[in-house]
Design goal:
- The protein is mainly alpha-helical and about 230 residues long.
- It is built from 13 helices and 3 strands; from the N terminus they run ααααααααααααβββα.
- The protein has helices spanning about 5-15, 20-25, 40-65, 70-80, 80-90, 95, 100-105, 115-130, 135-145, 145-150, 150-155, 160-170, 210-225, and strands spanning about 175-180, 190-195, 200-205.
- It has a 3-stranded antiparallel beta sheet, with helices on one face.
- Strand 2 and strand 3 form a beta hairpin.
- Helix 2 (about 20-25) packs antiparallel against helix 8, helix 3 (about 40-65) crosses helix 8 and helix 8 (about 115-130) packs antiparallel against helix 9.
- The longest helix has 22 residues, at about 40-65.
- It is flat and about 65 Å long.
Length: about 230
Protein backbone atom coordinates (compact mmCIF):
# COMPACT_ATOMS: atom_id res chain seq x y z
CA UNK A 1 0.00 0.00 0.00
CA UNK A 2 1.23 3.48 -0.90
CA UNK A 3 0.49 6.24 1.58
CA UNK A 4 -1.11 9.52 0.54
CA UNK A 5 0.84 12.76 0.88
CA UNK A 6 -0.90 13.72 4.14
CA UNK A 7 -0.09 10.36 5.71
CA UNK A 8 3.52 10.58 4.60
CA UNK A 9 3.68 13.96 6.34
CA UNK A 10 2.18 12.41 9.47
CA UNK A 11 4.75 9.59 9.30
CA UNK A 12 7.50 12.20 9.37
CA UNK A 13 5.97 13.95 12.37
CA UNK A 14 5.64 10.65 14.19
CA UNK A 15 9.23 9.76 13.39
CA UNK A 16 8.37 6.27 12.16
CA UNK A 17 8.32 4.90 8.60
CA UNK A 18 5.78 2.09 8.44
CA UNK A 19 6.80 -1.18 6.82
CA UNK A 20 3.09 -2.03 6.85
CA UNK A 21 1.41 1.29 6.05
CA UNK A 22 -2.02 -0.30 6.24
CA UNK A 23 -1.58 -0.26 10.01
CA UNK A 24 -1.37 3.53 10.02
CA UNK A 25 -4.45 3.77 7.82
CA UNK A 26 -6.39 1.50 10.16
CA UNK A 27 -5.23 3.49 13.21
CA UNK A 28 -6.78 6.60 11.67
CA UNK A 29 -10.07 4.98 10.62
CA UNK A 30 -12.95 5.98 12.89
CA UNK A 31 -15.92 3.67 13.38
CA UNK A 32 -18.16 6.20 11.59
CA UNK A 33 -16.59 5.25 8.26
CA UNK A 34 -15.67 1.62 8.98
CA UNK A 35 -17.04 -1.34 7.03
CA UNK A 36 -16.46 -5.12 6.87
CA UNK A 37 -13.55 -4.47 4.51
CA UNK A 38 -12.37 -1.32 6.28
CA UNK A 39 -11.95 -2.05 10.01
CA UNK A 40 -12.03 0.78 12.54
CA UNK A 41 -9.25 1.71 14.94
CA UNK A 42 -11.09 0.48 18.04
CA UNK A 43 -9.05 -2.70 18.55
CA UNK A 44 -5.83 -0.79 17.97
CA UNK A 45 -6.94 1.84 20.49
CA UNK A 46 -7.44 -0.91 23.08
CA UNK A 47 -3.94 -2.27 22.45
CA UNK A 48 -2.31 1.15 22.22
CA UNK A 49 -3.65 2.15 25.62
CA UNK A 50 -1.73 -0.77 27.15
CA UNK A 51 1.45 -0.09 25.16
CA UNK A 52 1.36 3.57 26.20
CA UNK A 53 0.85 2.54 29.82
CA UNK A 54 3.91 0.30 29.79
CA UNK A 55 6.06 2.90 28.02
CA UNK A 56 5.10 5.65 30.47
CA UNK A 57 5.44 3.38 33.51
CA UNK A 58 8.92 2.39 32.43
CA UNK A 59 9.91 6.01 31.78
CA UNK A 60 8.67 7.20 35.17
CA UNK A 61 10.42 4.43 37.10
CA UNK A 62 13.67 5.12 35.28
CA UNK A 63 13.36 8.89 35.76
CA UNK A 64 12.88 8.67 39.54
CA UNK A 65 14.34 5.54 41.07
CA UNK A 66 13.35 6.53 44.60
CA UNK A 67 9.70 7.52 44.05
CA UNK A 68 7.08 5.49 45.90
CA UNK A 69 4.09 3.99 44.12
CA UNK A 70 1.92 6.69 45.63
CA UNK A 71 4.05 9.33 43.92
CA UNK A 72 4.29 7.53 40.58
CA UNK A 73 0.58 6.75 40.17
CA UNK A 74 -0.69 10.35 39.82
CA UNK A 75 2.16 11.19 37.43
CA UNK A 76 1.24 8.16 35.36
CA UNK A 77 -2.42 9.14 35.29
CA UNK A 78 -1.56 12.66 34.14
CA UNK A 79 0.48 11.33 31.22
CA UNK A 80 -1.87 8.63 29.92
CA UNK A 81 -5.25 10.33 30.37
CA UNK A 82 -7.29 11.11 27.29
CA UNK A 83 -6.50 14.84 27.43
CA UNK A 84 -2.75 14.20 27.26
CA UNK A 85 -3.15 11.83 24.32
CA UNK A 86 -5.38 14.35 22.54
CA UNK A 87 -2.81 17.12 23.05
CA UNK A 88 -0.10 14.99 21.46
CA UNK A 89 -2.48 14.10 18.62
CA UNK A 90 -3.06 17.80 17.91
CA UNK A 91 0.65 18.57 17.95
CA UNK A 92 1.44 15.80 15.47
CA UNK A 93 -1.49 16.49 13.14
CA UNK A 94 -3.34 13.24 13.78
CA UNK A 95 -6.69 15.04 13.71
CA UNK A 96 -6.18 16.30 10.17
CA UNK A 97 -5.42 12.76 9.00
CA UNK A 98 -8.41 11.03 10.62
CA UNK A 99 -10.73 9.08 8.33
CA UNK A 100 -14.27 10.04 9.41
CA UNK A 101 -17.81 9.50 8.22
CA UNK A 102 -19.70 12.50 6.91
CA UNK A 103 -21.80 13.05 10.05
CA UNK A 104 -18.79 12.84 12.36
CA UNK A 105 -16.84 15.20 10.13
CA UNK A 106 -19.70 17.72 10.08
CA UNK A 107 -19.93 17.63 13.88
CA UNK A 108 -16.26 18.58 14.29
CA UNK A 109 -14.87 15.11 14.90
CA UNK A 110 -11.32 16.13 14.03
CA UNK A 111 -11.28 18.36 17.12
CA UNK A 112 -13.07 16.10 19.59
CA UNK A 113 -10.97 15.18 22.62
CA UNK A 114 -12.10 11.56 22.77
CA UNK A 115 -11.59 10.89 19.06
CA UNK A 116 -8.13 12.44 19.10
CA UNK A 117 -7.07 10.57 22.22
CA UNK A 118 -8.32 7.25 20.89
CA UNK A 119 -6.61 7.80 17.54
CA UNK A 120 -3.30 8.61 19.22
CA UNK A 121 -3.47 5.38 21.19
CA UNK A 122 -4.31 3.50 17.99
CA UNK A 123 -1.27 5.01 16.26
CA UNK A 124 0.92 3.83 19.15
CA UNK A 125 -0.45 0.31 18.67
CA UNK A 126 0.17 0.53 14.93
CA UNK A 127 3.84 1.35 15.55
CA UNK A 128 4.06 -1.47 18.09
CA UNK A 129 2.66 -4.01 15.61
CA UNK A 130 4.82 -2.64 12.81
CA UNK A 131 8.16 -2.56 14.61
CA UNK A 132 7.86 -3.80 18.19
CA UNK A 133 7.76 -2.30 21.67
CA UNK A 134 11.07 -0.44 21.52
CA UNK A 135 9.98 1.53 18.47
CA UNK A 136 6.63 2.35 20.07
CA UNK A 137 8.30 3.34 23.34
CA UNK A 138 10.83 5.54 21.57
CA UNK A 139 8.04 7.33 19.73
CA UNK A 140 6.07 7.86 22.94
CA UNK A 141 9.12 9.29 24.73
CA UNK A 142 9.84 11.59 21.80
CA UNK A 143 6.27 12.84 21.38
CA UNK A 144 5.48 13.17 25.09
CA UNK A 145 8.82 14.95 25.56
CA UNK A 146 8.91 17.43 28.44
CA UNK A 147 5.55 16.22 29.74
CA UNK A 148 7.34 13.32 31.40
CA UNK A 149 9.81 15.60 33.18
CA UNK A 150 7.01 17.88 34.41
CA UNK A 151 4.56 15.11 35.25
CA UNK A 152 4.76 15.70 38.99
CA UNK A 153 3.35 19.20 38.67
CA UNK A 154 0.76 18.17 36.09
CA UNK A 155 -0.35 15.21 38.21
CA UNK A 156 -2.06 17.43 40.74
CA UNK A 157 -5.70 17.43 39.68
CA UNK A 158 -6.88 21.06 40.09
CA UNK A 159 -10.44 20.27 41.19
CA UNK A 160 -9.28 17.77 43.80
CA UNK A 161 -6.56 20.12 45.03
CA UNK A 162 -8.99 23.05 45.33
CA UNK A 163 -11.48 20.90 47.22
CA UNK A 164 -8.77 19.78 49.64
CA UNK A 165 -7.68 23.40 50.11
CA UNK A 166 -11.26 24.49 50.89
CA UNK A 167 -12.05 21.62 53.24
CA UNK A 168 -8.80 22.14 55.15
CA UNK A 169 -10.15 25.62 55.97
CA UNK A 170 -13.59 24.45 57.01
CA UNK A 171 -15.32 25.40 53.76
CA UNK A 172 -17.74 23.38 51.67
CA UNK A 173 -16.43 21.92 48.39
CA UNK A 174 -16.15 24.48 45.57
CA UNK A 175 -19.08 24.90 43.21
CA UNK A 176 -18.81 25.06 39.42
CA UNK A 177 -21.35 27.10 37.49
CA UNK A 178 -21.65 27.07 33.72
CA UNK A 179 -21.96 30.74 32.75
CA UNK A 180 -22.31 30.29 29.04
CA UNK A 181 -21.67 28.36 25.89
CA UNK A 182 -20.57 29.92 22.63
CA UNK A 183 -19.42 28.88 19.18
CA UNK A 184 -21.00 26.48 16.70
CA UNK A 185 -22.60 23.22 17.85
CA UNK A 186 -19.73 21.16 16.46
CA UNK A 187 -17.08 23.23 18.29
CA UNK A 188 -18.57 24.75 21.46
CA UNK A 189 -16.65 26.79 24.01
CA UNK A 190 -17.80 26.52 27.63
CA UNK A 191 -17.38 29.27 30.21
CA UNK A 192 -17.35 27.98 33.79
CA UNK A 193 -16.87 29.78 37.10
CA UNK A 194 -15.39 28.13 40.19
CA UNK A 195 -16.78 29.53 43.46
CA UNK A 196 -15.68 29.21 47.08
CA UNK A 197 -17.89 29.72 50.15
CA UNK A 198 -15.70 32.64 51.12
CA UNK A 199 -16.74 34.49 47.96
CA UNK A 200 -13.68 34.16 45.73
CA UNK A 201 -14.28 33.15 42.12
CA UNK A 202 -12.36 32.50 38.91
CA UNK A 203 -13.67 31.65 35.47
CA UNK A 204 -12.21 29.88 32.47
CA UNK A 205 -13.09 28.92 28.90
CA UNK A 206 -12.45 25.53 27.27
CA UNK A 207 -13.75 23.23 24.57
CA UNK A 208 -15.30 20.86 27.09
CA UNK A 209 -17.14 21.60 30.33
CA UNK A 210 -14.78 19.36 32.28
CA UNK A 211 -11.71 21.13 30.92
CA UNK A 212 -13.25 24.51 31.76
CA UNK A 213 -13.93 23.38 35.33
CA UNK A 214 -10.35 22.17 35.68
CA UNK A 215 -8.96 25.42 34.30
CA UNK A 216 -11.15 27.54 36.58
CA UNK A 217 -10.16 25.45 39.61
CA UNK A 218 -6.48 25.80 38.71
CA UNK A 219 -6.76 29.57 38.39
CA UNK A 220 -8.66 29.91 41.66
CA UNK A 221 -6.26 27.65 43.56
CA UNK A 222 -3.26 29.59 42.26
CA UNK A 223 -4.88 32.83 43.38
CA UNK A 224 -5.65 31.52 46.88
CA UNK A 225 -2.24 29.96 47.39
CA UNK A 226 -0.52 33.19 46.38
Amino acid sequence: MKLSADLRTLQTRLGHDFKRPELLVRALTHSSIASPTRPSNERLEFLGDRVLGLAISDALVRADRHAAEGQLAPRFNALVRKEACADVARETGVGEALKLGRSEMMSGGRRKEALLGDAMEAVIAAVYLDAGFEAARDMVLRLWGDRIATAEADARDPKTALQEWAQARGQQPPRYVELGRSGPDHEPVFTVEARLDSGETERADARTKRAAEQAAAKALLARMEN
